[in-house]
């Protein structure tokens, strides 16, 4: 007897060609019935002898952009349908459907872009159900054209026919358009005059162009032109912060940078992130050092929009593609603001009239220990959710931290972390935070009842949470949130040991924590060990002056006799500056005690003369790692014992990591004239040994070890720790869908808030 089944699928099943896929599969297998979109996903009524096989294939052969998170399959009354049809969408109260991230241009669209016979030949906004804008253009749910910034572009008859045809690749592709009915580009010079073309000739001449992309503006110049690169660096007041590159294709990336299979997979993925890759020696002839001063790596991505592909009609193989913003300010995403604010930086403006509703930076990823580690999570990944280990008691907002902010909204068994917002120190960035929080609630259909915030009293996000309307406000310790975020990603609710290593976090003793061994879960934690407290002149602001940190650490750690031997190391500090530091240390004026791992890296970097003045967050540590990695690549030495020792002292139930011997050993090597790269390498190696020895000493029993915090975005250190852990049989888990730094903090806040809320 012929049977009938009702099938309910939810997840990313709308706007990704799912209904046409169901329609085609049903016709292929002789299935009768219907499929439609609803506020809760996709509903299917299927009749026929092959329904069980049909259902199995539905789950196994989903379209490339679809992601099923819920499935239901049950027998229902036979309807005796004559064929299979796509029915009109149904709305059923509050929407519960996932929105797809923005997707890099697919191969089919790229082929049509170059086909002189095609309707969309050289059309900069070609897209289909398998690619194109999604999150950046949606204003509200459900995801229909009228709810996106494409609402102001009525379809021409040809586009409308494709949009309505279930067998067409553009069936219900909401951004579908062509040159007759869709968005258009225009090139302006700095005076506002219209110019022909896409700016390719201007880039070839060494000019700088502000180009409106998928999620905001890029500032673009020829990546192989050192004069243009340096001019952009000066105009943008970027200091030494590295520029991102876009490459013509994978072949030119392979020519100048080292690319593993995993890195190649990331570059070619639908998210198309910036991937941090190691330079080859010969790359310096084509890719100038000015792109990333002091670093052995470059961040590179492939073209992910049709407009990007057209730009490479020029003769260049690499374009600088850096965020279009003023230093320290949020990403610019409107034409009016770009022309106003980027005047004086850009020589030309390549604009278009498709509005961006959610500004979204490029995502940044690096392969560390054979796994992709997100440094910045934005375009291509947002607004995909994380699954919570258990249902939340209420809808909760985690406001995140102060640096590299991303907030998180959670309800039921899902948590949605926003795109990278930026640092909250500036007024404009904080306004962007408020703007995105309001609009993100519509996209994910969550209005929070509870807010969880960082314990640091001076954070903008903390003050925002305390001033807000939420009846329950829950304070969360920074490093506890880091630990629980990773546990949550892995679906673990049991307590585990975590090594949380970062730059700064407000401790329960009102000191600055940052190199912590915590045992806990969402219910609570115990601090089992930490780096000894050291003096930080100027507090968090002192991180911009690593040589001052090195000086203060030396004064604190060394004996008077040892200190006198270091006199020549401080010649780069003016005499007056040394006197001020001496007075600060003596009288404890503006001196903050810290156990920060990040500040230890800063101090060592300055000691070695690698970075003594910081122009971007994390610079001293990043350049220190780069020197060490280059030395490691040239030398096969892998010491069984660390060169520099970390000792322990007990303070009640807490183990203190003492770094006097490590610091003095480094200073002796500097005074003996050892190569800075050699010392930098052995610092990383010794720190890795110290971390793993401490984990073994704590004897925490079964369960995984969590490695998290921004310091574990350091590839060399992390991979050394992973190798040692493997040798000792220690299972390690790390962040996988969120950054290990503060960009992943808010998920932990939500899960801890859930345990504490009533």
UniProtKB/TrEMBL annotation:
Residues 193-380 form the YrdC-like domain. It catalyses: an acyl phosphate + H2O = a carboxylate + phosphate + H(+); C-terminal L-cysteinyl-[HypE protein] + carbamoyl phosphate + ATP + H2O = C-terminal S-carboxamide-L-cysteinyl-[HypE protein] + AMP + phosphate + diphosphate + H(+). Its EC number is 6.2.-.-. The active site is at residues 19, 37. NCBIfam families: hypF. This is Carbamoyltransferase. Pathway: Protein modification; [NiFe] hydrogenase maturation. It comes from Desulfitobacterium hafniense DP7. Coiled coil: none annotated. PANTHER family: CARBAMOYLTRANSFERASE, CARBAMOYLTRANSFERASE HYPF. Keywords: Hydrolase, Ligase, Metal-binding, Transferase, Zinc, Zinc-finger.
């Amino acid at each position: 007897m012929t049977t009938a089944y009702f099938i309910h699928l939810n997840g990313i099943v709308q706007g990704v060609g799912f209904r046409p896929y169901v329609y085609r599969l049903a016709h292929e297998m002789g299935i009768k019935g219907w499929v439609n979109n609803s506020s809760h996903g996709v509903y299917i009524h299927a009749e026929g002898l092959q329904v069980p096989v049909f259902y199995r294939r539905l789950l196994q052969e989903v379209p490339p952009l679809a992601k099923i998170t819920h499935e239901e399959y049950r027998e229902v009354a036979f309807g005796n349908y004559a064929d299979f049809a796509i029915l009109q969408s149904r709305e059923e109260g509050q929407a519960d459907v996932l929105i797809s991230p923005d997707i890099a241009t697919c191969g089919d669209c790229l082929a049509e872009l170059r086909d002189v016979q095609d309707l969309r030949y050289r059309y900069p906004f070609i897209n289909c159900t398998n690619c194109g804008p999604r999150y950046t253009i949606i204003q509200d749910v459900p995801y229909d054209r009228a709810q996106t910034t494409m609402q102001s572009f009525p379809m021409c008859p040809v586009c409308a026919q494709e949009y309505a045809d279930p067998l067409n690749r553009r069936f219900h592709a909401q951004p579908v358009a062509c040159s007759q009915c869709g968005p258009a580009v225009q090139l302006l010079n700095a005076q506002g005059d219209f110019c022909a073309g896409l700016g390719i000739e201007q880039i070839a001449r060494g000019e700088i162009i502000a180009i409106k992309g998928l999620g905001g503006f890029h500032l673009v110049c020829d990546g192989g032109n050192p004069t243009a690169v340096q001019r952009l660096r000066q105009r943008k007041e970027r200091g030494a912060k590295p520029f991102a590159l876009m490459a013509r294709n994978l072949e030119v990336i392979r020519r100048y940078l080292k690319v593993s299979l995993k890195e190649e997979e990331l570059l070619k993925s639908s998210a198309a992130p910036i991937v941090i890759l190691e330079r080859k020696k010969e790359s310096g002839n084509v890719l100038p050092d000015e792109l990333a001063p002091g670093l052995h790596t470059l961040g590179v991505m492939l073209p992910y929009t049709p407009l990007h592909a057209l730009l490479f009609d020029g003769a260049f193989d690499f374009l600088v593609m850096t965020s279009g913003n003023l230093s320290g300010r949020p990403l610019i995403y409107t034409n009016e603001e770009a022309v106003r604010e980027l005047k004086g930086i850009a020589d030309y403006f390549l604009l278009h009239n498709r509005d961006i509703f959610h500004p979204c930076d490029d995502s940044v990823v690096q392969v560390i220990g054979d796994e992709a580690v997100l440094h910045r999570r934005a375009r291509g990944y947002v607004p995909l959710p994380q699954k919570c280990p258990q249902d939340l008691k209420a809808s909760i907002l985690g406001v995140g931290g102060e640096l590299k902010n991303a907030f998180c909204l959670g309800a039921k068994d899902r948590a949605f972390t926003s795109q990278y917002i930026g640092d909250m120190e500036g007024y404009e960035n904080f306004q962007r935070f408020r703007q995105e929080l309001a609009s993100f609630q519509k996209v994910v259909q969550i209005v929070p009842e509870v807010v969880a915030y960082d314990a640091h009293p001076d954070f903008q996000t903390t003050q925002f949470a305390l001033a807000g309307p939420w009846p329950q406000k829950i304070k969360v310790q920074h490093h506890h949130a880091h630990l629980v975020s990773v546990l949550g990603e892995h679906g673990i609710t049991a307590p585990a040991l975590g090594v949380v290593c970062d730059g700064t976090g407000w401790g329960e003793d009102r000191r600055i924590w940052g190199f912590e061994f915590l045992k806990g879960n969402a219910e609570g934690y115990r601090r089992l060990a930490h780096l000894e407290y050291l003096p930080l002149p100027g507090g968090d602001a002192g991180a911009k002056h690593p040589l001052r940190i090195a000086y203060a650490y030396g004064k604190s750690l060394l004996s008077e006799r040892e200190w006198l031997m270091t006199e020549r190391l401080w010649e780069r500090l003016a005499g007056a500056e040394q006197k001020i530091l001496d007075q600060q240390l003596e009288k404890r004026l503006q001196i903050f005690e810290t156990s920060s791992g990040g500040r230890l890296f800063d101090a060592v970097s300055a000691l070695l003369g690698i970075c003594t003045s910081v122009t971007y967050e994390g610079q001293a540590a990043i350049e220190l790692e780069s020197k060490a990695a280059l030395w490691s690549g040239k030398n096969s030495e892998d010491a069984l014992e660390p060169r520099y020792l970390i000792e322990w002292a007990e303070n009640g139930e807490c183990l203190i990591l003492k770094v006097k011997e490590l610091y003095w050993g480094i200073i002796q090597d500097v005074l003996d004239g050892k190569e800075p790269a050699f010392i930098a390498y052995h610092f990383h190696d010794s720190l890795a040994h110290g971390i793993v020895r401490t984990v073994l000493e704590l004897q925490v029993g079964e369960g995984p070890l969590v490695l998290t915090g921004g310091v574990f975005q350091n590839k060399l250190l992390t991979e050394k720790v992973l190798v040692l852990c493997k040798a000792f049989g220690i299972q390690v888990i790390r962040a996988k869908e969120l950054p290990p730094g503060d960009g992943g903090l808010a998920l932990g806040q939500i899960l801890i808030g859930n345990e504490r809320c009533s």
